[in-house]
Design a protein that fits this description.
Oligomer: single chain
CATH architecture of the largest domain: Orthogonal Bundle
Number of domains: 2
Shape: globular
Number of strands: 0
Order of helices and strands: HHHHHHHH
Largest sheet: none
Structural class: mainly alpha
Amino acid sequence: MTDSRLLTRCRAGDWHAFDELVVRHYPAVYRTAKAIVRSHPDAEDAVQDALMHAYSRLSSFRGDAAFKTWLVAIVRNVAITRLRARRRRERTTAPADAVRFDQLRSGEPSPEDRVLDGERRRRLARCIDALPARLRDPLRLAHGGRHSYKEMGTLLGTPTGTIKSRVHEARLVVVGSLR
C-alpha cells in the first residue's frame, strides 16, 4: 500500500495505517535523529516526539514532498531542539562522557584507550559543531542519516548539486582542522 493511501486512512482515524507508516520509515527517521543527537536514548526520544507531532499534524501535510521527507524534516527539527537543550544542561553539569572505571568488563579497551578514543570523538564533534550550519547540516545528514543527496536537498531546501559541494567542503574543513 502506498504512503498516500495510508495517509488517507490515517486522516480517517485508522491508527493501524499510521503504525504501518512508522514501521516503514522508522529506520530513516531514527538515523536522522541519531546523526544529530549522537545518543541512542536521545534519538529514540526525538523520534517519539516527532512521531507524536507528525500524527497530530497530519491534516497540515499538503503532499508537496514525500511523506518520508516531511517526517524526516520534523524529526530533524525535534532532534536539533533536543540537542540544544542537552548542551545547555551539560554546560551546568559535569561531563557526561567521563570514563567509569568501575563499569569496565574484560575484553573492553583499556581505560587509557577509552580516554584517548573519547578525546578523539570530542575533538571531531567540536570541529563539526564549529562548522557553519550551511556545511554542518548536510555533513551530518550525509554521514548519519544515510539520505540521498536529493532527499537532503529537499530537507534543507537546497539544490542537490549544492548539497554535494557542501558535504565535500565540510569534509575538507574537518580533516584540515584535525591535522
